[in-house]
Each structure stands twice: as C-alpha cells, then as structure tokens.
Write a structure and sequence with these properties.
Helices cover 33% and strands 28% of the residues. The protein is of the alpha+beta class and 458 residues long. The structure holds adenosine-5'-triphosphate (ATP).
C-alpha cells in the first residue's frame, strides 16, 4: 500500500495552500463546517465537471436535473425519511455529549458490526459489555434520532410551516420523473443525474471533510425494466470503479463491499458500498443501490399522480420502472483524491511533497514562472501567460526563489511549470518542467499550444 498520509498532514496542507479552511474561523469557527479556498473550489469544480461530462454530456441515455433544496415535506414522508432516516443516539449522563450507539459499540466490542441493528439489540450490547462513554461515564438508553434538518417558511413565528433541508438529492429526481420523461422523450433504460447540496444533522460529524452536516452529492437514478436490473447494476458498478481510477483514486485502497441482506436500507434490495482506506479506517466513499420501484410507487401512492412509463412499442403496457442508484459524495471524493495523490519523495536530501493529480483534475494545469522580476522577462512571461491561458487554467508566480516556487507548484499538484529565463529573450523558447519526473524540456513559445495540446489531453 502506498504511503498513507495522516489527516493532520493533509488538512495542514489544505489550509496552507488554500484547498480547505475551517468554516467561520474569524468568529471562532463553527464545528465541522468547512469552506473551500481557491484551489479547493477549483478541484471540486473539476471533479464535478468531469463527472457531469461523463454521465450526462457524453451519453444519450442520461439527462441532468437541478432540483431545489426545499421541497414539499410530504415528499419526505413518502420516501420514508420522516419515519426511518434515523441514527441510534446515546448520551453521556454527566457531560451530555452525544454519540452514535453503533459506533461506540464497534469501538468497544471487537468483531461486532452494529450498523443497522435494532434499538433493542444495541441496548443489549451496551448493557452486556458494560460500555461507558469515552469520558468513562454511564450512558442513557439508546434512542432514535432523525437526521433531517427542519426549518420554517413564513414571516411570523406562529404562521411558519415546517420544511426540511433535503438529506439527499435523489428525491428531486423521483418527483420530477414524469416531467423529465415527457419533456426529454427518453426511453428506458435511461437515467437522470443531479449534483447538489444535501444536509444531515449527523450525531458525530468529523474526520475533516469526511462527515459534515452540509455536503454535496452527485447522484444518478437509472430507470430500467425490472428483469434487467442486474445487468445495469453491474454496468454502474464497473463505471464507478473506472471513474475512481480515472480521477486519481488509489485502487489498492478502494474496495467494493456487498452489504448483507439484513443490513440493507429500507429502500434497497441490493447495495454495494465502495469503501476507501482513509487514515481513520476503511469507510464508505460511495454507494450503489438497487432501489427497485420503491420510490416511484410510494410517490404515486402519496401524490395520487401516476409515475409510470408507457412502453413505446405497446401503448397498453404501463410499468413502474426499477431503479439503480449510484450515489457519490463530492467532499468524500475530494478527500480520497487528495489522500491518494499525496506523495513524498527525497530529492537531494530534502523531502519533496507533491500532489500527483491527473491533469484534468489538477486545480492549475500550468504555472508560468519568470526567473526574475526584470521588466523584459515580465513582459515576455505575460505573453506566454496569455497564450496558454486561452486553453488552460494557469497560475502566474514571480515571487521567491525558483526552487521555492517549484515546491509550491508540486504541493498544489500543477502538472507543468513554464520557466521564462534570460535565454528566452534570444531563442524565444522556454523551459517546461514536469511535476512527476522533474524532467525539463526546452520548447519554442510558438509551439507551446501544440505541445500542451498533445500532452495535457484535456
Ligand atoms: P454513512 O454510512 O457514512 O453515514 P450513508 O450510507 O448514510 O453514509 P448515503 O446515504 O448512501 O450515505 O449517501 C451517499 C453518499 O453521500 C455517501 O456515499 C457519501 O459519499 C456522501 N455522504 C453521506 N453523508 C455524508 C456526510 N455527512 N458528509 C459528507 N458526505 C456524506
């Protein structure tokens, strides 16, 4: 297994270089909220754009959707979230700190997987094993805690009506199923993809950006004939592994885990969790679920609207399609990419830190670095900058020694640095340094667009 960087190291680098900052920091912060800095925002955008391009723009069987965060609360009754979107909560009787009962049990009893256990089973395990809180105090009985954030629409307190911040993006897809079908005239198998924010009042958020209250999801609902679900499930499972590899996730640390039948979520008949070896353990990165016709049927029942598909070859045949759902968190993906791409190597007795981001994911593709701030070098460097900025995302940096500037670009994962030196004034050529090999190439300025065009392949 490749050099596993600690969360502390990666979060320090993320802060120092402008990937991720602790949220609201000048006001003392807000626990478990994070803001993405200039490089983090770009990295997120690149991950999302690549996903969108591959699942929507480059396929005829897929369309996109951008649903709203606030939706009619009846949706969450129909989806089962009001009744079942719960986690088991215990409280320390002295400090009143709250914990996930299943997590506490797993930390205290070896070999137990408490995920999905009933409240009764959890209470029994806590009593039988005399489990205390991490501060050594007694625990309350386990109770269920609904993870949805509730808020109010309305001006005066008494007239407010309750709504939820959506805990997943998927439901917007189901409730728009008929409108998308009618307007896009797609035939099954076809899918609807969406990227957007989701909110969960997690009992124990933490591990940097792994588990937060506000996060972003990239979700697909793929509608199929019921007897074809297995084939499509396999296709999406393969697609998810291929995409993981293409964005730089270390495949030695990426594992598909089949969820046993008795641990499946209320809507699922089969689920694979794609897990990643994070520094704090092997944890869920993404999920793939076969949701059957659960959601469309429930929304039909609760809304009174027929969410059915008419077979174009036989108008009398109306079916409720079955659904395969790849569900992926943007923030966890970004964390797994950063952990996978982080590398250290010794160069001339010093440690060089680099992010081996694939070219299309890297926040900057190229950095232009004039060797000195002399006006004649600045002027030709700006020409080079303008030339390459036409097609790629480029950083420009003229402060500090060239060595320090290379080190900074390595740490933020820029694949190529262009150095403009005094010879450039005569030979109209620049030096291109490769991040991974540190090899240097002399290239004519007039050839730069072709050179990068063939090598960056974006
Ligand atoms: P977990 O078991 O870790 O709580 P989950 O099974 O509840 O996750 P899903 O409901 O399947 O997660 O959500 C789909 C994806 O959304 C997850 O695979 C993950 O990438 C992301 N995700 C879910 N909850 C969070 C969170 N609190 N913070 C960041 N990302 C999240």
């Amino acid at each position: 297994m490749k050099n596993i960087v600690t969360i502390e190291k990666i979060s320090n680098l993320a802060k120092k270089r402008g990937f991720v900052f602790a949220g609201s920091e000048i006001y003392g912060g807000l626990a478990n909220s994070w803001d993405y800095g200039p490089l983090g925002a770009q990295l997120r955008k690149n991950i999302k754009s690549d996903w969108w391009h591959r699942v929507v723009e480059s396929r005829q069987d897929m369309v996109g959707l951008d649903g709203s965060i606030l939706m009619n609360p009846k949706i969450w009754v129909a989806s089962g979230h009001v009744d079942s979107f719960n986690d088991p909560l215990v409280e320390d009787k002295v400090t009143h700190k709250r914990y996930r009962a299943d997590h506490l049990i797993e930390e205290n009893v070896e070999g137990v997987n408490a995920d999905g256990m009933s409240i009764k089973e959890l209470n029994k395990l806590i009593t039988d094993n005399k489990i205390k809180s991490p501060d050594g105090n007694d625990l309350t009985k386990v109770k269920t805690f609904n993870l949805m954030f509730e808020t109010g629409i309305g001006i005066t307190e008494g007239e407010k009506s309750s709504v939820y911040l959506r805990p997943e993006t998927a439901q917007a897809i189901f409730v728009n199923f008929k409108q998308v079908l009618d307007s896009s005239r797609k035939r099954i198998p076809f899918g609807i993809a969406q990227i957007g924010k989701a909110f969960r009042n997690e009992i124990t958020p933490g591990n940097f950006i792994f588990r937060t209250l506000e996060f972003e999801q990239m979700e697909i609902e793929y509608f199929v004939e019921s007897d074809e679900w297995e084939k499509h499930f396999k296709d999406w499972s393969d697609w998810m592994s291929e995409w993981a590899k293409s964005i730089g996730i270390d495949m030695d640390r990426f594992h598909a885990k089949d969820i046993p039948k008795d641990k499946l979520a209320h809507y699922s008949n089969k689920t694979i969790d794609f897990e990643f070896d994070f520094p704090f353990g092997c944890k869920e990165l993404w999920g793939l679920a076969y949701r059957t016709d659960f959601d469309l049927k429930n929304h039909t029942k609760h809304s009174g609207q027929q969410l059915v598909y008419t077979d174009p070859n036989d108008n009398t045949r109306k079916i409720v399609p079955h659904v395969i759902e790849p569900s992926m968190g943007v923030d966890r993906t970004l964390l797994a990419v950063m952990l996978s791409c982080y590398d250290e190597e010794e160069v001339n007795g010093e440690v060089r830190v680099l992010m081996r981001f694939p070219n299309h994911i890297a926040p900057f593709h190229i950095a232009v670095l004039p060797l000195s701030k002399k006006p004649e070098l600045q002027s030709v460097s700006k020409e080079v900058l303008d030339l390459v900025s036409e097609k790629w995302v480029v950083d420009y940096d003229e402060t500090q020694s060239i060595g320090k500037r290379y080190r900074r670009q390595d740490e933020i994962g820029t694949p190529y640095c262009i150095t403009v030196d005094f010879d450039t004034l005569d030979d109209k050529s620049v030096t291109i340094r490769d991040r991974d090999t540190m090899k240097q190439n002399r290239v004519k300025i007039t050839d730069l667009q072709d050179w990068f065009g063939s090598i960056l392949n974006i």
